[in-house]
Amino acid sequence: MVRQLAKRNQVTRSQSDALHAFADLRNAISHGEYRSGNPIADPRPDIVEEIRRLRDILLAAPTLVSVLRQNPIVRFSPDTPVHDVLSAIREKGYSQFPIYDDGGSYHRLLTARSVARWIAHDLADNGQLDAATVADVLRFAEPHDRAVLVPRTTTVPEALEILGTRDSGGQLPDAMIVTEHGKREQLPLLIVVAADIPALLDAVEF
To answer: Rounded to the nearest 5 degrees, what angle is found at the Cα of 135, between the Cα atoms of 143 and 148?
Structure first.
């Protein structure tokens, strides 16, 4: 079970190592030789506390919203002028932007890769950037430029599994958008990207 969970990123390497070590200890106590009626191995009090601490981490894993502090979310609509996107990239340093339609529903993810493709194609045409809106830029998006929507109850181990799961084309998601219930018609509470993974791993490190 531990190996299967580790492959799905539901336990970290250190958690996996600890669980295997604790299993070896358990087997030594339960199945090892006895001397004068006593097992040859005993768990030290500090090891028992380690087991309890790991148990608490696994059974009450922290949620994304309790671990990550969200900077102001920058989202656009398909009608947003391209200039606003370029300004956000320059001023905020963001590389992923959720696009929501006028009704407040999630449309798709705009990535810096899509913007780069647009610039390359648009400049090749006449040496000028002619696109006017986000919708024009999204024509250069590819299927793997995508985000996964999840509810605010999503835990850190669950998030790590999602971020590490490739789609049918072998691509990892670019972002994870947290809404109240993971619905497209709900506005984002948090956006998780690859740069957040170290903080997520620290939150469940053992």
So the answer is: 40
* H or E segment and range at residue 57: helix 45-59
Q: Please give the model's pTM, rounded to 2 decimal places.
A: 0.76
- In the chain, the N- to C-terminal Cα span, in Å, equals 18
For the chain, 206 residues long, give each residue's pLDDT as a single digit of tens.
Answer: 888 888 776 788 888 899 999 998 888 888 877 777 777 777 889 999 999 989 988 888 899 999 998 778 899 999 999 999 999 999 988 889 999 998 899 999 999 999 999 888 878 877 777 768 999 999 988 888 899 999 999 999 889 889 988 888 889 999 999 999 999 999 999 999 999 999 998 888 77
Assess contact for 135 and 170: CB atoms under 8 A. Answer: no
Number of domains in the chain: 2
Last residue of a domain, one of 27, 60, 93: 60
- Residue 82 tokens read as 């391209």
For residues 128 and 39, state if they share a domain: no
Domain of residue 52 covers 2-60
- Specify the CATH number for the domain of residue 107: 3.10.580.10
Task: Mark which of 60, 92, 109 sits at the end of a domain.
Answer: 60
